[in-house]
Write a structure and sequence with these properties.
Blueprint: H1 6-14, H2 20-25, E1 45-56, E2 59-67, E3 78-79, E4 82-84, H3 91-103, E5 110-115, E6 119-121, E7 126-135, E8 150-157, H4 158-162, E9 167-174, E10 177-186, E11 189-191, H5 193-209
Parallel strand pairs: 1-7
Antiparallel strand pairs: 1-2, 1-4, 2-3, 2-8, 5-7, 6-7, 9-10, 10-11
Helix pairs in contact: 1-5
Length: about 210
């Protein structure tokens, strides 16, 4: 595939029709339901994440974070900057606010290019809305990590994620169960679950325009 440019990203996000469910399925654990059950009481909480893109060393990169190991939820997992949307803000604004809080990149320096398909996260009952953002000028931003939440920043070339060798299967343990899950290998870290599912849609869109 040729080097990824901003034009590739814009074309990928504009693709229609696109089978997002098939793209999600590529990285979804076999036991994961695709949608929130209709008989589940109440409503899902709303969360937003940002796929933050920029150029570094002449290559398109994506910012991922590894959460601290002592957090109450999703400890140690690799994710996108993001969190719960507040009642008085748009979903895109929530993704930008959370990005600033977690990695210190100001909303005024980011352009929202588009949105991927929302996904439901069963353990936390969140409906997550993924947005794709581009740092103005494409330059690498100055990151300032929230040390009470983020253990590590993983600056990941898109070329690495698009390479077939980055996609693997492994074993995780959750609540006493051992599960075989698909994941992306990023600097030796397993990127699985919701983050991998969202990434899969983004990458499959890119493959179609590359």
């Amino acid at each position: 595939m040729s080097p990824i440019t901003l034009a590739h990203i814009q074309a990928a996000l504009a693709l229609t029709p696109f089978d997002s469910q098939a793209a999600h399925y590529l990285m979804a654990p076999l036991t994961r339901p695709a949608n929130r059950p209709a008989d589940l009481p109440g409503a899902a909480r709303i969360g937003c994440v940002l796929l933050l893109l920029y150029c570094h060393q002449a290559e398109m990169h994506l910012a991922l974070t590894r959460r601290r190991d002592d957090l109450n939820s999703h400890a140690g997992q690799v994710s996108f900057p993001g969190g719960r949307a507040e009642a008085d803000e748009t979903l895109a604004a929530a993704a930008l606010r959370e990005t600033e809080e977690e990695v210190g990149v100001r909303p005024s320096t980011i352009t929202i290019l588009g949105e991927l398909t929302p996904i439901w996260i069963p353990p936390s009952d969140f409906q997550v809305h993924p947005f794709v953002g581009w740092v103005h000028g494409g330059v690498r931003p100055s990151f300032h990590l929230a040390v009470d939440e983020v253990a590590e920043l993983l600056e990941t070339p898109l070329s690495h994620l698009l390479h077939p060798d980055s996609r693997r299967e492994g074993i995780i343990e959750r609540q006493g169960y051992r599960l075989t899950v698909p994941y992306f290998d990023v600097e030796g870290h397993m990127v699985w679950g919701a983050t991998a599912i969202i990434l899969s849609e983004f990458l499959e869109r890119l493959r179609l325009v590359g």
